[in-house]
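Appendix C reproduces, verbatim, an entry submitted by the partner laboratory led by Prof. M.T., so that reviewers can inspect both the input and the predicted structure.
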Amino acid sequence: MKTIQFREAIAEAMSEEMRRDKNIYLMGEEVAEYNGAYKASKGMLAEFGPDRVIDTPIAELGFAGIAVGSAMNGLRPIVEFMTFNFSLVGIDQIINNAAKMRQMSGGQLPIPIVFRGPTASAGQLAATHSQAFESWYANTPGLKVIVPSTPYDAKGLLKSAIRDNDPVIFMESEQMYGDKGEVPEGEYTIPIGLADIKREGSDVTIVTFGKIIKEALTAAEDLSKDGISCEVIDLRTIRPLDYNTILDSVKKTNRLVVLEEAWPFASVASEITYMVQEQAFDYLDAPIQRITTADTPAPFSPVLLKEWLPNAEDVKKAVRKVLYKN
């Protein structure tokens, strides 16, 4: 095993796959000459050249459409959005073409594209640059949605996403690119649609994904000092969602807290909450608790931003509530 940064895991996954398959290419704003806005494509232009690592204009709709067209003609593009906030400019191509083309062509046109880049809050970036779109894209049949939280998961899942014949939304975080973690020296992939139990426990299940899992793990460690055992599940993939791992855990702990760095209405947490009450209601010993951002645009003020974002204290409060220890 070696220890590398999250951004290096992303670069390794893309580079390894591009060496394996000449039909794979990367394009996006600043991915080539600048080595990526967050240096997640560092060194790739030097290795693969400008025909396969392509700097684009600031025109997400245009290069998302180019990716769809090239995928229809046998290529396998990786599209980097500098942030998924900017993907809204190209969302027509993602939702109405990439996601639907296989069905509309009667299965004749697979669309093997990975749309990747950072999502959600990254500090004082205010309302238009701090949004999480996992539930938006997961609401679209035809798209797969992945949100890794560690370098190990990022590399293994990105390699699987690049090999997939359907369009994949691969969401990262600006605040995780410098995170370090162990990654195998050799070849490996992680199956899409399989959650991971990051911490085993017996008293309460905490389900989350992405960088906000750090708050869940911090809360679980603090609560363990009071004799409370938390099981922390990292979804990793939002669509397809691993319902079985969640249900198996809830049937063991009988309590559920769902943590998500997104707005509450029509969220991933909403889907999980509905599914668990439908399929495991008799196992629940307390109402499910859901923790999200405040239901407002993200504020710029650091004081307000701290209140807007979920944190470990919110998780601990929710855990104690489902255990009737408030």
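The mean pLDDT is 97. Additional entries are available on request from the coordinating office.
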